[in-house]
Amino acid sequence: MFIQSFKSDGLSHLSYLIGNRGEAVVIDPRRDCEAYAEAAAAKGCRLTTILETHRNEDLISGAPVLADLTGARVYHGPNAAGEVCYAETVREGHEFRFGNLILKVLETPGHTDDSLSFALYDTDFSEQSVAVFTGDTLFIGDVGRTDFYPDRAEEVAGLLYDSLQKLLALGDQTLIYPAHGAGSVCGNNMADREFSSIGYERQNNPMLQIHSRQAFIDHKIGERHYQPPYFRDMERLNLKGCKPAKRILTPAALSPKAYKNLPQQAVTLDVRNISSFLGAHLPGSVALPVPMIPAFAGWFLRPDDELALVASDAQEAEQAARHLARIGFDKVLGYLAPDMPHWAATAEPFNAVTAIDVDEFESRRNNPPHHWHLLDVRGKEEVDENPVDGAIHHYVGKLIATAKEMTASHHYTVMCGSGARATIAASILMRQGFQNVDVFLGSFGALMADT
């Protein structure tokens, strides 16, 4: 018997392959899913069953693709707000048996109405569960968000509380395998590790220290989460099933001439690191470093956008295209890896963004230039916890819409936690015609280090 985890970086998505006596099960596969079939074959197992813990909002499910690839049957929970066309509905009490192993289905609604968990038993040794695959119900250090049903806020928070009690009842010996790790948008305070147990979480998970159902509900209702627009597309695609990702995800290399001949409506994503973007970038491009694509691409792109990437090399372009494919952005026309000094030497246009340090920041704050504004693009909870005097707040993800409340001719210094989100925000503002924009590099982190 074995359990193999697969992590999708950026999304911090965790999926699992469980094998025993020649059969294998996959839980929550991602869209680029050949790795599961290959791993099962390498272990001498035939993939027979695919289980989904819920209808994902933040990534495309690979279940229908993997089912077509292997012939495995897909199972999904009830109450999915629509028919999951590629899956059979499974309910609490159903069991999947693989030799001496049993996976028992638990209905654990709250994060979503269709949420399931799967408790694993080894019948050769004990009647107690060995492990549980918790989806987005229970994380390591946190629990799932409950804001997807705003008109039922109290009800679904209470459902999550009840589901957590069901998981706790499995016993302290039970290992926890969640669907996400630290960095996911599906929770706020996940621990930076991918292993735990019911016993450890019972004692150390802050959300499990709230023993009053009503207090738990009140806490969940008070949480603030952002929902990128692409979540709705993921929900729709994960009902009908999405087509496979391209087998080869490295985009075609573009020459400068080919890049300039791309359709005018194509969106240029600069996926290099923020230092490269700040130093020199193509006019009109959006800064979106590879590690930040899963969290922010869905805020700025539409499903049908044609994309051109600016990358340091083919490997970086492939990583970017893979992240984009996992969240439904497939129309990557190619990538350009410009040598910016050579680009400039051939009289091609480029832009740069001034980066200021903490001394310059304090100088401006103490003696503000004419029409100068400090723009804080951190999340609302970050701002509430650590406000910065004099700053106006517009969350980076919502900046395309909220920039209409700002004056394009004014001077904006953008800050966040470190400068990365601020660079993304600066690129969005420049793309919308703001000319006098700079970035406080180091941002809140620099302010803390300077105190």
Topology at a glance:
Layout lengths: L1 E7 L4 E8 L2 E5 L6 H9 L3 E6 L11 H8 L2 E4 L11 E2 L5 E4 L2 E7 L8 E7 L6 E7 L17 H16 L6 E4 L17 E2 H7 L8 H10 L7 H11 L15 H5 L6 E4 L3 H6 L6 E2 L5 H8 L6 E4 L3 H13 L5 E5 L3 H6 L8 E3 L1 H9 L5 E5 L3 H6 L5 E3 L5 H4 L8 E5 L4 H12 L5 E4 L2 H8 L1
Parallel strand pairs: 3-4, 4-5, 5-6, 10-11, 13-14, 13-15, 15-16, 17-21, 18-19, 18-20, 20-21
Antiparallel strand pairs: 1-2, 2-3, 7-8, 8-9, 9-10, 11-12
Helix pairs in contact: 3-5
Main pleated-sheet profile: 6 strands, mixed
Regarding CATH, which class of the largest domain? Alpha Beta
What is the level-2 CATH architecture name of the largest domain? 4-Layer Sandwich
The rounded Rg comes to 24 Å
What is the straight-line distance between the termini?
A: 54 Å
Remind me, CATH topology of the largest domain? Metallo-beta-lactamase, Chain A
Order of strands in the sheet with the most strands?
1-2-3-4-5-6
Helix content: 25-40%
**How many beta-strand segments?**
21
Count of domain modules: 3
Mean pLDDT: 94
| Class by SSE composition | alpha/beta
Short description:
This protein is an alpha/beta fold and 451 residues long. The protein has helices spanning 34-42, 63-70, 153-168, 198-204, 213-222, 230-240, 256-260, 274-279, 293-300, 314-326, 340-345, 358-366, 380-385, 399-402, 420-431, 443-450; strands spanning 2-8, 13-20, 23-27, 46-51, 73-76, 88-89, 95-98, 101-107, 116-122, 129-135, 175-178, 196-197, 267-270, 286-287, 307-310, 332-336, 354-356, 372-376, 391-393, 411-415, 437-440. It has 3 domains: 2-240, Metallo-beta-lactamase, Chain A; 256-345, Oxidized Rhodanese, domain 1, CATH 3.40.250.10; 354-450, Rhodanese-like domain (Oxidized Rhodanese, domain 1, 3-Layer(aba) Sandwich).
